[in-house]
Amino acid sequence: MCGIFGYIGKRELKKTLLEGLKRLEYRGYDSAGIAIVNKDSIYLNKVAGKIDDLASKVNFNIPMYNTCGIAHTRWATHGAPTKRNAHPHVDCKGDIAIVHNGIIENYLELKVELLQKGHVFDSDTDSEVIAHLIEEYYAGDLEEAVRKAVQRLRGAYAICVISINEPDKMVAARNGSPLVVGLGDDESFAASDVTPMLRYTKRVIFIKDGEMVVIKRDSIALKTIEGEFVKPEIQQIDWDAAQAERGGYKYFMLKEIFEQPRVMKDTLYGRFSKDGNIEFPQLEDWKDYLRSLRRISIVACGTSYHAGLVSKYFIEEIAGIPVDVDVGSEYRYRYVLPDEESLVIAISQSGETADTLGSVRKINDKAKTLAISNVVGSTLERETDKVINVNAGPEIGVASTKAYTAQLMTMYLFGLYLAQLKDKIDIRDYSKELLKMNEYVEMILREDEKIKAIASKYNHYDNAMYIGRTYNYPSALEGALKLKEISYVNAIGYPAGELKHGPIALLNSNFPVVAINPNSRVYDKMLSNIQEIKARDAKVIALVTEGNDSLNSLCDDIIFIPNIKSVFSPIPIAVAEQLLAYYIADMRGIDVDKPRNLAKSVTVE
Ligand code: F6R
């Protein structure tokens, strides 16, 4: 996720672009830049760092001769967060500048083609190919060149393009990443969302996938990328700026929960070859080592630790490699035996968690290390041998939601990759479900109102227990963590088989239980546990596979999850748990994005 902004009109350009960009900072903040159509060249200013760093480098005294410019705040996906990888990117001559949000899946093949034609690249990003493609097709008509270029792109994009040869316009296009155009008084805007334009205009057009738009200061022309005119639907926006940043959602957490279908797709980008095999280009030179791996140790904290636990079950089953999982604060102080035939995987959204970093540092070259992280360029990424980025985009809500499901998706892919290397299974049977995970997540999100109604029945309880078995034992831990951290309910997660070893003593009519029981080989075992709980008068909310109506009379409430392999059920189950926790916390009047005593990154022990 990145933020793009374009402006054409009467205002002082540098200031307008920087102010607009500041509103988009929540979308990414590892590097930033602006490009302005000047007298006879494009003025370009980029930095590795935040928008304030960029602002301190811009000389406001140099006058600009034109009225059109673009800006970008980056959240790195391809290429480290350095100045050369910061946007805007320009073509070989420096006549065309582009900003891009999204992931271009076929950028490598396009780059090879463009290199063969003599184009010179300046960055490691996927985005730069767009500038060179437009240059390649440019024959005096920017709109036509952009049209031809975007027709070659596979993947997700929202782009905004300017050219020194046509200083009176910006050309923008969208497929899969958000793009909004704002119509002001003799000025126009293009941006990832309405936040940078709200102070100037409330009249906006939400551009749809497959559309492109030529934006002038007093007019716009909206077309499909095939060139057919489209009648723009102008909307009046009444949100204030803070609401707009959250896309109209009450809290970032809810926005991030609803982003998960998109995240599921982004996490998959570039992971499958044309013949359906899983690819991790960064692990190419590790293939022999991974084939002969004898042990994997996963270290992580909190929600990321739960992603590690699910990974253990999956990798052991699918790739036949023993996996142990530790919380960072234990691993770093216990006696461990890393060696050359083992791999240490550190999972961390932020890449800055002190105990996870401490664990990796302890390895000190005794074993190879792999980071599964969401923040490109984080300390963890710099201190591990290899990195797989989960591509969830910036997560702002303190409670981790989309980063967790992106971690799960990444670890499923990694497990399948190991199985593929060892020729263990035909991965297609598994990958076809992963490729549809966005749809399964959407199915849960459509249950939003039902889950909210369930939350309204249970929000006054001060205790809760989550139980599950095998793959959904970690889901029980994660459901309980989500609820306790944002609602302050004393929620505990247990492997269901442990109930009789103590925790069942807690249960009575004031102690609701969330029983996670999708179709699986432990379904009947879980059913017995549910019966034991009902015999103690406790209320049961059951998560079961759609089409299973047999628990309707036994349980108090049911949430259906899609009919998928039980190994993958932790993803839709996590989404249902997130919604339940969110609504309970909101109904208890808690500031969901800022629960007491918590910080987004735990950078101290
Ligand atoms: C819970 C949550 C935390 C983090 C934990 C690790 O919702 O967000 O438990 O998962 O602090 O953080 P990262 O993944 O950044 O290492």
Give an account of the 3D structure.
This protein is of the alpha/beta class and 605 residues long. The protein folds into three domains: 243 residues, Glutamine Phosphoribosylpyrophosphate, subunit 1, domain 1, CATH 3.60.20; 187 residues, Rossmann fold (3-Layer(aba) Sandwich); 163 residues, Rossmann fold (3-Layer(aba) Sandwich). It has 20 helices and 24 strands. The strands form four sheets. Strands 3-2-4-1-10-9-11-14 form an eight-stranded antiparallel sheet, with helices on one face. The protein has a six-stranded antiparallel sheet with strand order 5-6-7-8-12-13. A five-stranded parallel sheet has the order 16-15-17-18-19, with helices on both faces. Strand 5 and strand 6 form a beta hairpin. The model has no long low-confidence stretch (mean pLDDT 94). It binds fructose -6-phosphate. The site of fructose -6-phosphate (F6R) has 15 residues, from helix 10 and helix 18.
Radius of gyration: 25 Å
Q: How many E strands?
A: 24
Shape, principal axes of CA atoms:
globular
Query: Percentage of helical residues?
Result: 25-40%
CATH architecture of the largest domain: 4-Layer Sandwich
Major sheet: 8 strands, antiparallel
Share of residues in strands? 15-25%
> What class do helices, strands and sheet pairing give?
alpha/beta
Number of domains: 3
CATH class of the largest domain: Alpha Beta
Q: CATH-wise, what's the superfamily of the largest domain?
A: Aminohydrolase, N-terminal nucleophile (Ntn) domain
What small molecules does the structure contain?
A: fructose -6-phosphate
CATH topology of the largest domain: Glutamine Phosphoribosylpyrophosphate, subunit 1, domain 1
- Lateral arrangement of strands in the main beta sheet: 3-2-4-1-10-9-11-14
Distance between the termini: 30 Å
Mean pLDDT over the residues: 94
Uncertain ranges? none
Total helix count?
20
